[in-house]
User: What shape does this take?
Amino acid sequence: MKIFLAALTATWLCLAVPAADAIKPGALWPDNLGEHIQAHGGGILKVGDTYYWFGEDRAKNNPRGLRCVSCYASTNLVNWTHRHQVLKLRNPENFGRGWVLERPKVFYNAQTKKFVMYMHIDGALAGEGHGYKLARVGVATCDTVDGDYQYLKSFRPLGHESRDIGQFIDDDGAAYLISEDRPAGFHIYQLSDDYLTVAKDVCLIPEHLEGGALVHYDGLYYAVGSELTGWNANPNRYATAKTLAGPWSEFKDLAPPEKNTYGSQSTMLLKIIGTKTTSVIFMGDIWRPDTQWDSRYLWMPLEIGNGKLSLPAPREWTLDVKTGEAIINR
Ligand code: DGJ
Assistant: This one.
């Protein structure tokens, strides 16, 4: 009995003591240089065994007027090496006042062997003072995953307004851009063969959702998004469908609505297929609009299955990317 109790205590201690390699939602997340990771509104691309995390680099010491995207690399999704500021843009098309570059996402096109970055480009219309009216996507490409991306162009997908974008790569490798089109809703666009434009509007979900994200899990598609409340957190919601084209179920809360998604906003759903199990990670941003460089990340493994999705209360957790197992520290 004594031995059993000792073993139990040891296990409990082990789980209660913060693990060095734990993911800590809401905490500062230092990279290999000890700097808080600058990959806000980001997305992840896996190349071989390495995950590349791209996002808005809002570091305090970035030169004024420059909009930057940083790329980090990791093999365990916990310890990240800063690779490069892969895009540094100074208003490339003479956009209007307060132009912005947000939510960069990178795809790899096997045909052209190019890495293709999509981003939300916005700003005021010519002669107007208010921002977020351009509602376009920008495209940049690179021959290597973490090299210098060259900005190509911006456009409105199939003529539609596009603000927050998300990225989805299906199990068959097909690449989709998720896009918020006010006031119509949430588009799922299939990219063209070379990924340099949008080829087809696969679905328009008539819901006003930002921070759009998708995952395909156990035969069902799950779509997640937040309400439109600027930088303030709100209850993120989800719907399901058997095909991307729908029909989609009604949207339901991802967490108790009074928790406002624990202060975060969705940016991507990351599927980790391991040797033992498949985990789906909710990647969210905890925005700090007045000190954007200090915005935090809320990553948590989701409870998913049978058409239900639930975001657990944030706690430290560990992930084994080989087995796919995610363990939440109790
Ligand atoms: C909410 C969006 O999700 C963010 O990416 C950003 O565009 C803010 N709105 C700006 O208010």
Remarks:
- Residues 21-328 form a domain with the Tachylectin-2; Chain A fold (CATH 2.115.10.20).
